[in-house]
Amino acid sequence: MHASGTLHRRVLVNAVVDPEEAAHRLPDGVRPHVTARGTVVGCCLLEIQHVRPARLPAGVGITLRAAAHRISAEWDDGSGGRVVGVYVPDRRTDSRLAVALGGRWFPGVHHHARVGISETSEGFSWQIQDDGQFGIAIAVSVPQDHVAVGVCDPIGGTCLGATIGLSPDRSGALEAARMELQHRNAREVIVDDLDSAFISSLSTATPAPAYLMENIGVTWTPAAAPRFASVAA
Fold first, then answer.
1. From CA 21, how far away is CA 5, in angstroms rounded?
2. Which stretches of the chain drop beneath a pLDDT of 50?
């Protein structure tokens, strides 16, 4: 099923880790993508408006907030080519509809969490809380001067350029979704405070630039997942 919406706000909070450590978090057959600084990992925080089947008008869509963990990865497409994307081991959302339909009506299994956002004159903060180990708390400042992120930047080019995400489906196999954006313009933001159980669990993690994208049309479609891969325990 194709779905559409608008990314009112998308924040990519990044770190780089040793590829060998990243490899232990990936399914069989999926490799860490390696940049000059290491493998990019992080948290993706989303405010999405007008989420709906692609054939329907925006006015019938819903609004949701979500968060996901990401590991930059690559895999073979079965015909000798290489796909660079991300592996998403876990997702959370405040939308119970997305929890019910994710992995069924559209790719991407979601679990429920409490998502709070507060804004200040300098930026904003997010708090994602659940009953498990997903928790994220972050405070971000947004510089007034808008400097575009270069696609040749090893961090920005990797995390902003990825279009395909792999994640566990409801049966434990892999499924894939393609995210097409109207554009990939982003600005670098300053992370003033970060508490992420996921990033903290990676012993080699060092901070990397974080990025903000705003008010971008988006479409999600199913994509081909590697058939030989199985989800790591």
1. 35
2. 233
Helix (H) or strand (E) holding 101: helix 96-101
Unique residue bearing structure tokens 């959370």: 92
In the block, which residue shows the tokens 């001067």? 145
CB of 167 within 8 A of CB of 174?
Answer: yes
Alpha carbons 191 and 125: distance in angstroms, whole number: 10
Statement: the pTM of the whole predicted model exceeds 0.90: yes
Of 27, 42, 53, nearest to 232 by C-alpha is 27
Cβ–Cβ under 8 Å, residues 115 and 67: yes
- CA pair distance 66, 130, nearest whole angstrom: 12
Contact 41, 87 (CB under 8 A): no
pLDDT single digits (tens) 125-159: 999 988 777 899 999 999 988 766 766 688 988 98
* Domains present along the chain, CATH in parentheses: 3-223 (2.40.400.10)
C-alpha pair distances (Å), 7 with each of 14, 74, 81, 113 = 19, 25, 30, 19
CA distance 146 to 189: 10
Q: How far is CA 15 from CA 12, 117, 158, 178, in A?
A: 10, 22, 12, 23
